[in-house]
Specification:
8 strands, alpha/beta, two-stranded parallel sheet, 6-stranded parallel β-sheet
């Protein structure tokens, strides 16, 4: 009985081996999961979980006022509910990427379930915006080992993040978000924020939108430029 248990344990460990990558740079590097861009003079500002009928417009306005481009990792099921808003992101000059069709932990999906979800997300985003996303970030930043391979087979680039503001938490403030996500910035950093509260604390996008001007000022103060991926 011990051998099957050991085999099952080993397979489970291999399946979940990429999971620590968002918070473990050495794991991300070993698995070739990028957390940074190659631009030494830029900082990529990215948003997950949208579009959102109120959060996305608020973030777009803050970006417009700051003259900053960004990348939005869209969720297919939210695009279906807000198709014109997804198109507006592109019209405003920002980049779009795919965050899946549904916001589910990949460790709980079979390979076929994950493939179907990702392909549906890509199709939904493409149909709504006229742009086929080429960059992928998994929900919660958590990959399974098989999902990593599927993403590459589908011709997508993966992108995690190097700094985040934990803006999805209840009880945080715009100032705390800005300070955490933009302290000690360096060229190539990828900042993770959220323009939606579909899967997080209610109204968290309000604090994110309020934090954006300070974030953009910190990027400028560091002698860097905000960029899209």
């Amino acid at each position: 009985m011990r051998k099957p248990l050991l085999i099952a344990t080993a397979l489970g460990a291999a399946w979940a081996s990429p999971a620590p990558a968002p918070i473990a740079p050495l794991v991300a590097r070993a698995l070739r999961l990028p957390r940074r861009t190659s631009d030494p003079g830029g900082v990529a500002v990215t948003f997950d979980d949208g579009p959102h009928p109120r959060g996305t417009p608020a973030v777009l306005e803050a970006l417009r006022e700051g003259g900053a481009p960004a990348t939005f990792f869209l969720v297919g099921e939210q695009v279906e509910r807000n198709r014109s808003l997804a198109a507006e992101i592109v019209s405003a000059g920002h980049s779009i990427a795919v965050h899946g069709h549904r916001h589910r932990n990949l460790l709980r999906l079979t390979p076929s379930q994950f493939t179907a979800d990702l392909e549906r997300g890509i199709a939904t985003i493409s149909d709504s915006t006229g742009v086929a996303p080429t960059v992928y970030r998994p929900p919660y930043g958590i990959f399974s080992s098989v999902a990593m391979g599927i993403v590459r087979v589908l011709g997508l680039r993966s992108m995690l993040w190097s700094r985040w503001g934990h803006d999805w938490r209840a009880g945080t403030t715009a100032g705390a978000i800005a300070t955490e996500v933009s302290s000690q910035l360096a060229g190539g950093d990828v900042l993770l924020l959220h323009d939606a509260d579909h899967y997080s604390a209610a109204d968290c996008w309000k604090r994110t939108a309020a934090a954006l001007p300070q974030v953009l000022m910190a990027i400028e103060a560091a002698g860097l430029l905000p960029i899209a991926i």
